[in-house]
Inverse folding.
């Protein structure tokens, strides 16, 4: 089966997701600084979601680069991941327009949690498709970040009822954790 | 003629369709669970349509992978399929916003029926372009699912006037039928 | 310079244009046949524009397939064409929402005229980039359709002030003229 | 690491940005010339931004064509550039709808300035990834335009408080400066 077209389709979907998200940042009518400041919360959410989707694209890129075999199960596990990512413009807009209120902030975390689970499923499916002792399974290694992220999302979702600010800080922390260069897969290729 | 660019263009269009559909799920203004629940029907339609478009992408991927020759007729048969698929965001939004009312549910089925017919035409055109005894025609085989789907859509459209719920159940059933791994084309390559 | 990336970018832009056009067909609020009928004119315009953009993609595909050399002038001539094509969702929405009124119908023709001129410029730029006696210049031949189309657009724009229906019929006629398989370039490759 | 997928993803994002921008040009309700004239300022902004994004795509295309090595830092520098480009539909819509008022015109320049800085960072990161004496670093040369543009943006942003028209003229001047064929990288390949 054709890995190239799977990558091309994923790139297309992720490119549209990351870009249409900006449409949720509605152009204000008044030409004033005040009007711009009101867009602030949506902009902050946009930055956060842009980084998250960038991280997913980056990791997706590395993971598929290390993979050699793709089958029907991988196609569906990939579509499952794209489904949850496609909801990010919605949760981003809702959280931003409501200035990080509790329920929208919790939903943002739920979608992130589901996307993280979907990514984990895709990873498992891909590893299985490569057969034992594959380059990919070595490259993934212990996958500490991948195991830690869903846990932090769960804590963030629960913390919303105490204060949404804790959740927002946790979402930012997860993004930062991933932004730190992930040398796992890359290093395996260099050595 | 260039099969690669046909695939790339189709991937692009399908990627945009599957993603802009989420724009029909309007971000609610209130930050309440109640507001989220009201988006429920549109979300359900979105899930259904996402799966349908995923199925089409999957099948399109397999079919073109098995094809070797592409001509002008194939390009137009492909555009014809993309046309009907491009209407899915519209029918999804209409059915969802009106909580699965009769007429929008019927229209959803009509567009699905037309897409199925368009897919069948594309399949015939591709088989013809490969010449006799092609790998593709063997891979397609009896195509039971492809022949059954339009029939079920017709029944669903008619059943709308009894109860739209029957139609919704039938749409879900067709999606499930296709989600079950289709080993036809894949297996031909393995053996 | 890289022909592949020019094709990929054009495919991306054309894929987005052909798909976001459907967003101009606003989902009606009422779940009635009457509400659907009111979308009729926008739908008709959508079909017409979908066919036009399909024709452009098809011809673009063939033309670039026959080309071997691409330079900076070609990149800009291509972007110029994409600019006029990108206005089609706007003119389609305006003509449809106003039920083929005179001014929107004229503007539709103006944008089509500009796109035809832009295509002609791109063709000239590409032929020049190939050098004398190229496969492309032979494949283009006398280009009767390409010379006829702008003339018909001009007549259509002028006829709007008599009756927009004449213009609409002429737009449909041009689309039909191009839909008839264009064997020019294709046949050159076969022989 | 895979240069092809970086190019494909960038092409996808830029293709979506350049095309969804047209959605900020809202279809007027009345079928009159007057209604069309009112869209004029948004149209002018659209033309300007289309050219800017075309320039970025062109330069991005050339720069990556001359590059041979891509690493994790390049992926993120590229996403950083795409982030600022993704804000252009927003600033275009705001400046256009408010008929080139001071604050929106200044914001337009701020985003252009940030995009120029992001492009410069990407260029530095790419050059570093190629190692010393690379084809890319020779091709970039003194990069006069790249150093001049941010300066002009700064002047434009400051001039907004005197008159937004000065800023608009400066934005147009930068676009024109880049439209003049940039033979730097191209010529290095020809010789």
């Amino acid at each position: 089966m054709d890995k190239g077209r799977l990558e091309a389709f994923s790139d297309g979907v992720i490119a549209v997701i990351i870009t249409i998200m900006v449409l949720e940042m509605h152009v204000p009518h008044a030409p004033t600084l005040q009007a711009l400041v009101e867009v602030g919360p949506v902009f902050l959410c946009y930055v956060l979601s842009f980084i998250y989707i960038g991280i997913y694209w980056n990791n997706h890129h590395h993971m598929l680069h290390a993979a050699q075999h793709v089958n029907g199960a991988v196609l569906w596990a990939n579509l499952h991941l794209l489904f949850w990512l496609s909801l990010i413009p919605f949760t981003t807009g809702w959280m931003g327009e409501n200035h990080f209120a509790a329920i929208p902030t919790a939903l943002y975390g739920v979608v992130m949690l589901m996307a993280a689970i979907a990514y984990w499923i895709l990873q498992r499916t891909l590893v299985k498709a490569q057969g034992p002792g594959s380059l990919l399974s070595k490259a993934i290694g212990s996958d500490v970040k991948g195991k830690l992220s869903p846990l932090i999302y769960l804590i963030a979702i629960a913390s919303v009822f105490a204060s949404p600010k804790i959740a927002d800080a946790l979402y930012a922390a997860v993004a930062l954790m991933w932004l730190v260069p992930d040398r796992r897969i890359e290093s395996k290729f260099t050595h």
Remarks:
- The mean pLDDT of chain C is 91.
- DSSP finds ten helices and no strands in chain C.
